[in-house]
Amino acid sequence: MSRHNAPDTELLTRSQQKVTEPPLYRVLLLNDDFTPMEFVVELIMRVFRKNEEEATRIMLNVHTQGQGLCGVYPREIAETKMTQVNQHARNSGHPLKCRIEPN
Ligand code: TYC
């Protein structure tokens, strides 16, 4: 142990210094009656780096189920994507909303 009570990691094997995984958050898109489907598909492609087929599948899932999963990320990345979605929708005059929740 060092003088700060931390383990001397340089003396531990790789398995003993196992890296801790950051908490992950789901980024969910919410349905509404007004945002055009094409706008949603293009937004999913841009923000979540999905191809058109996958973005369309996610959009239709949101449309029929009320909400849908766009991706799972560490907190800061999830928050950034949520903010990008909400700002782009608002700037475009659409009520589309995005939220995050712990995975
Ligand atoms: N329900 C919308 C429509 O019929 C489409 C839509 C899909 C809106 C997904 C939001 O997150 C959404 N035009």
TrEMBL record:
Stretches assigned to the Adaptor protein ClpS core domain: 21-98
GO MF entry, a single one: peptidase activity
A Pfam family assignment: ClpS
Domain of life: Bacteria
Alphabetical GO biological process terms: protein catabolic process; proteolysis
InterPro entries with a match to the protein in the record: ClpS, ClpS_core, Ribosomal_bL12_C/ClpS-like
Keywords annotated in UniProt: Hydrolase, Protease
Record's function text: Involved in the modulation of the specificity of the ClpAP-mediated ATP-dependent protein degradation.
Assembly mode: Binds to the N-terminal domain of the chaperone ClpA.
The protein's name in its UniProt record: ATP-dependent Clp protease adapter protein ClpS
Source species: Magnetofaba australis IT-1
